[in-house]
Amino acid sequence: MKKAIWMIVNVVVCIGLFFLVLNVHGSAYKVPALQAYTEFMIRNQTVFMAVTFILTLLLYVVYFRIQAGLRRDPQLKLFKSFRMDRLSSKQFLLLLAMGIAGCTFSIGLVLIDWIEAHMAAIPALVSNLMHADSIVYVIIGAGVIAPAFEEILFRGIVFNQLRTMMHTSLALLIQALLYAAVQPGLEVALIGFGSGLIYGMLYVRMQSIWAPITVQVVAMSSIFLAKYAGLFEWANRLGQTALIVITLISLLFLFGASWRVWVHGARSVETGAAKRPSAPTGA
User: Fold this and answer.
1) Are residues 15 and 158 in contact, defined by beta-carbon separation less than 8 angstroms?
2) Which long-range contacts link 141-144 to residues 24+ away (Cβ below 8 Å)?
3) Which of 8, 120, 213, 232 is deepest in the core (most CB within 10 A)?
4) CA separation for the pair 46, 34 (Å, rounded)
5) What is the reported pLDDT for 234?
6) Strand partners, 208
7) What are phi and psi of 72, to 5 degrees?
8) Contact indicator for 95, 211 with CB cutoff of 8 Å
9) What's the CA gap between 58 and 246, in Å, rounded?
């Protein structure tokens, strides 16, 4: 019972700290002395995101230190609470291909007319994040820091906390639902749920947070670079039929590769809490 309470507290606190920093950082816009800072952040939302995520990570470090003191466990540290094993060259190449497939899939979601008409939040999100003084700000903020933070929070912390008390499959489902819940809008949440499952599966089987981070960073960075380079316009000239085919192939590849990774690691499946060797006990 005590472990379950700590698990719930840790998940709530870590997600809550993110929203706390988001709101406090956002309220800085109202401070007259920070007018120049405010104007810069309004022009560069991806920098605002990056600063918010970095500040939240710093609070996570402090939170872990507090827990280490309370539990009298000096080994309880943020970056030791989840697996960060080195990826093999084969794993990296597969993850790179998955990231590129995620990029082409996302381009299709933005350009296919039916999706634009019924799920306008998806193309709007890409367009909004592209508004910045420099493409460098977009890549660093939305292409690198944001994906890395999401994986540390949802796969590294939340998922690992959940599977201290439940079967891995159930933990995968719940963390994907939580990941979807924080996305901006229902349309993006649907994509987020599927992505959350894929990222969680990669993390479990490759036993490294670098696996989902690699896919996310490659996908997100490629999307914004493609938009900046005019590849969206080029892809649009291919026509709707070609876009639909490319999008479906990309989606099938993502699910197929994820399933292959999941099955390939079947011998290391965790079948229950009693066999779970390294899930963290605190956040």
Assistant:
1) yes
2) 141/44, 141/45, 141/46, 141/47, 141/48, 141/49, 141/50, 142/46, 142/49, 142/220, 142/224, 143/217, 143/220, 143/221, 143/223, 143/224, 143/225, 144/217, 144/220, 144/221
3) 213
4) 18
5) 95
6) 84
7) 55, 45
8) yes
9) 40
The number of angstroms, rounded, from the C-alpha of 226 to the middle of its chain's C-alpha atoms is 20
Answer yes or no: is pLDDT of 273 > 70.
Answer: no
Please provide the DSSP assignment of 147-162 as one string: HHHHIIIIIIIIIHHH
- All residues at 6 or more sequence positions from 92 whose CB lies less than 8 Å from its CB, including other chains: 214
162 close to 276: Cβ distance less than 8 angstroms = no
The pair of structure tokens assigned to 45 is: 């939302």
Report H helices in the chain: 2-27, 35-43, 45-71, 89-111, 113-118, 121-129, 135-138, 146-150, 160-162, 168-181, 186-206, 210-229, 231-236, 240-264
Give the residue among 243, 215, 245 at the shortest CA–CA distance from 231.
243
Instruction: Find all residues with CB under 8 Å of 75, minimum gap 6, and list them.
Output: 68
Output 187-194 pairs: Cβ under 8 A, ≥24 positions apart.
187/119, 187/120, 187/121, 187/122, 188/121, 188/122, 188/125, 191/109, 191/122
Kindly list the domain boundaries of the chain, sorted by start residue.
83-275
Report pLDDT digits (tens) over 232-243.
999 999 999 999
Q: Distance between CA atoms of 111 and 52, rounded to whole angstroms?
A: 30
List Cα–Cα distances, 184 to 32, 132, 190, 222, in angstroms: 28, 19, 10, 21
CA–CA dist 104, 222 (Å, integer): 9
Give pLDDT, residue 272. Answer: 37
Cα angle at 24 between 7 and 10, to 5 degrees? 5
pLDDT digits (tens, 9 = 90+) for 16-36: 999 999 999 988 877 888 888
Q: Up-side HSE of residue 199: CA atoms within 13 Å toward CB?
A: 35
The model's pLDDT over 126-164, given as tens digits with 9 standing for 90+, comes to 889 999 999 999 999 999 999 999 999 999 999 999 998
